[in-house]
Amino acid sequence: MDGSTVHIFYTDMKNYGFIRTAAAVPVVRVADVTYNTAEICRLSQEAFDKGVSLVIFPELSLTGHSCGDLFRQSRLVKAAEAAVKSIAEFSRGKAGAIVVGAPVPYRNCLYNTAVIINNGFVKGIVPKTIINAEQSRWFASGNDFLYEGMSDEITYAEQLCTISPNMLFEIGHCTFAVEIGEDLWSPVPQSSNHALQGAHVIANLSADRETLARNEYRTNLLKQHSAKTISGYVYASAGFGESTQDNVYAGAASVWENGFMLAENTRFLTESSLIIADVDVERIENLRRESGVFSNVTPTAGSYWKVSLDATADTDFDKELCRYVDPHPFIPSDESSHRYKEILDIQVAGLAKRLSHINCQTAVIGISGGLDSTLALLVTALAFEKLGWDSSRIVTVTMPGFGTTARTKNNATDLMEALGTTSREICIADACIQHFKDIEHDPSVHNATYENSQARERTQILMDIANQTNGIVIGTGDLSELALGWATYNGDHMSMYGVNGGVPKTLVRNLVKWAAENRFENVKEILLDIVDTPISPELLPANDNGEIQQVTEDLVGPYELHDFFIYNYMRNGYSAEKIFFLAQKAFTNVYDDETIHKWLKTFVRRFFSQQFKRSCLPDGPAIGTVSLSPRGGWEMPSDAWSTIFQ
């Protein structure tokens, strides 16, 4: 394959690293095993019809959780065992796993368990380990099976299988494990060890009683725990039909992935419910490798049994993906979010430290009237305010050239004046024309030489003014431009401190808008007009109407697409094929497949060919989980072949 050519191949009917999971909450009849079994089979079939590979049910879902002393009745316990056999027969020929809750007798004890059923077989039994005072009247703790010498084999539902809290089940490319109810509430949950042993997905069969504010607490716990274990977490709790003698069961169910909720049902329903979500196993693996935590923590729960299940369901993810794909992953979901303030605070703190450390007299910024230089100026103004320095020590320079329009020039000068900076206007046209004469370049030829000479002339002016005023040049380039190499080497590519290097273009626009509405109300109208101005380096002459002719997104592609590509390549480690698939889902009715494919090819080509610019970036604050700093944020050889990203 030619290194200068980008080839991206796509095939149909792939799993793209996903597994389809479901949390089912059936209406139960307490102690009516026959009815409960039928409802479990009905919901399982509904899940399998929708391509689900793993469906879980609540704790003790075969009998009902609230049976109380009825669990002492052998008839109920035997009925549950017969029901498991019936569900196993139902599952024969189906490419998916069913996890149900059942009371299982063993060695003169009764255990609250999850029974894993697949294609006609009982594949394993996982007992609950944390038994509260009430349940201890009927159930023993699964910790019994962790003691050395305790048998791990049981004949149940006429099948020989393993019973242990420490079990991993492999289904296709996914490994899942099970914990039950209060196991999650333990200071060291079983699922923590399950994740360290390789479980991508944790299934929790629960029967959590509903009390005031309980759902908020439970939600926070699930969010935090799925994030801490970098796992998919499928949770199903008992609902309508359980006895309300002393407690109410709301039937909460949700699916999580690394701290993000993929699906949630409605509580307090009077009918059965089924929620479905596609968990990204590939993303979980990539994030775990990147974190380094999993290679530095030793599991403490002893030996594990691994059980292979039959193939996953033939899920058509192309037809429907059961998860939300965020088209703007860098932008906070809440427009009024405190995250915008936090981002600015990080930028301001980084710059304030650098300015105070070197005790410089000024900060020098080139102001174009565009988004990036505007954000850099706002950050600098806030840093000076934080340090108690007068804004007159900010030296702002507007440098009109061959492509500067009245709109951007006026916005630049108005903004500099309104913020009280020491402003200068230096036209670069004459200097560039002289430069063209010196190097014998025809100024009517609008090529890279014509454009880049202007960018380098502007950078030279800024650097020299910084020397004049005992200051530093504040860089304005953003993360998206760095990823695409959309910067002139040793031109706008260079500065003495780059405050925007960790901020992608889509976020720059939103930050300026947020600052206009929440922090810089005195220049709100100017800032909002800058937000609405087409993105352009203005290096080519304007059109006959004096309007911007060189629109960046017409040349390099929409920044919202590129930021989507950047995030999913750098943060999630996806291939071009998977990014294309996800972009189709995220930008439905926005961009057609041909457009997405075109700009994805552009991204791949430019990202790999322009690494040399990123190998020598100035200092600047990291903002989020994606960074292109060569000092640990992103280390990549400048001579890598783009064929690795396919």
How would you describe what is shown here?
By secondary structure, the chain is α/β, with parallel strands linked by helices. The chain folds into 2 domains: 21-308, Carbon-nitrogen hydrolase (Nitrilase/N-carbamoyl-D-aminoacid amidohydrolase, 4-Layer Sandwich); 338-644, HUPs (Rossmann fold). Helices cover 35% and strands 17% of the residues. It contains 18 helices and 20 strands. It has helices spanning 33-49, 74-91, 190-196, 214-228, 281-291, 338-358, 371-387, 406-418, 429-439, 448-468, 479-484, 505-518, 524-532, 552-555, 559-571, 576-586, 593-609, 611-614, and strands spanning 18-25, 54-56, 97-106, 109-118, 121-127, 153-156, 159-162, 167-171, 174-180, 201-206, 232-237, 253-257, 260-264, 273-280, 305-308, 362-366, 394-398, 422-425, 471-475, 497-498. The strands form 4 sheets. The chain has a 7-stranded mixed β-sheet, with helices on one face. Strands 5-4-3-2-1-14 form a 6-stranded mixed β-sheet. A 5-stranded parallel β-sheet has the order 18-17-16-19-20, sandwiched between helices. Helix 1 runs parallel beside helix 2 (74-91), helix 6 (338-358) packs across helix 12 (505-518) and helix 16 packs across helix 17. The chain is elongated and about 100 Å long. The model is unreliable at 1-13 (pLDDT under 50).
